[in-house]
């Protein structure tokens, strides 16, 4: 998705509004996360002191398996992409290291890579169906959210079994 900013960069307008969406199939190979709906974005580019600042709100819904109980779960995520637009020169200034730089070439902005980067970085490290998910029993494999088992109550870590001798049963 390439935006031509020629008229905005050379014009008198102080704000350039952008809004849209693009379809996706899935995240890169090897990922079990699927983007369910099109990724939607809306925001503005502001002119501030001869600089151009981007502020973009991105929203999407992903679907994946819960990391504890393996049930399919989906969640809606909203994230923000901000940065300073700068003509691509191939060099990095000391000032540029302190802020997010979004490169433009020939007054054209390619948002696709920046939006994908923000989507990937906004995904949770651990995907859960709920915060109080109990997961599955490591011994018998039942879903502890829907059933209970006695497996965990009867097992003792072999490294700690010697400690049972300290507290004899009467």
- H/E element sequence: EHEEEEEEEHH
Query: How does the overall form come out from the CA principal axes?
Result: elongated
Q: How many DSSP-defined strands?
A: 8
As for the number of domains, it is: 2
What do you see in this structure?
With 170 residues, the chain is mainly β. The protein folds into two domains: 2-130, no CATH class; 134-170, no CATH class. The protein contains three helices and eight strands; from the N terminus they run βαβββββββαα. Strands 2, 3, 4, 5, 6 and 7 form a six-stranded mixed β-sheet that branches. A two-stranded antiparallel ribbon has the order 1-8. The mean pLDDT is 82.
Summarize the structure.
With 170 residues, the protein is mainly beta.
Pick out its properties.
170 residues, mainly beta, 2 domains, six-stranded mixed β-sheet, two-stranded antiparallel sheet, 3 helices, 8 strands
Helix-strand blueprint:
Layout: E1 2-4, H1 6-10, E2 15-22, E3 34-35, E4 39-48, E5 51-65, E6 72-87, E7 101-104, E8 108-110, H2 112-122, H3 151-154
Parallel strand pairs: 6-7
Antiparallel strand pairs: 1-8, 2-4, 3-5, 4-5, 5-6
């Amino acid at each position: 998705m390439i935006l031509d900013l020629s008229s905005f960069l050379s014009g008198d307008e102080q704000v350039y509004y952008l809004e849209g969406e693009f379809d996706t199939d899935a995240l890169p190979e090897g990922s079990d996360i699927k983007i369910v709906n099109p990724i939607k974005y809306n925001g503005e580019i502001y002119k501030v002191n001869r600089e151009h600042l981007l502020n973009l709100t991105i929203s999407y819904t992903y679907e994946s398996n819960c990391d504890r109980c393996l049930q399919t779960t989906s969640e809606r995520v909203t994230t923000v992409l901000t940065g300073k637009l700068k003509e691509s020169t191939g060099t990095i200034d000391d000032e540029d290291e302190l802020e997010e730089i979004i490169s433009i070439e020939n007054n054209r902005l390619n948002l696709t890579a920046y939006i994908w980067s923000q989507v990937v970085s906004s995904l949770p490290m651990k995907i859960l169906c709920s915060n109080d998910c109990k997961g599955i029993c490591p011994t018998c494999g039942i879903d502890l959210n829907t059933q209970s088992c006695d497996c965990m109550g009867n097992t003792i870590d072999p490294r700690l079994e010697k400690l049972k001798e300290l507290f004899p049963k009467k």
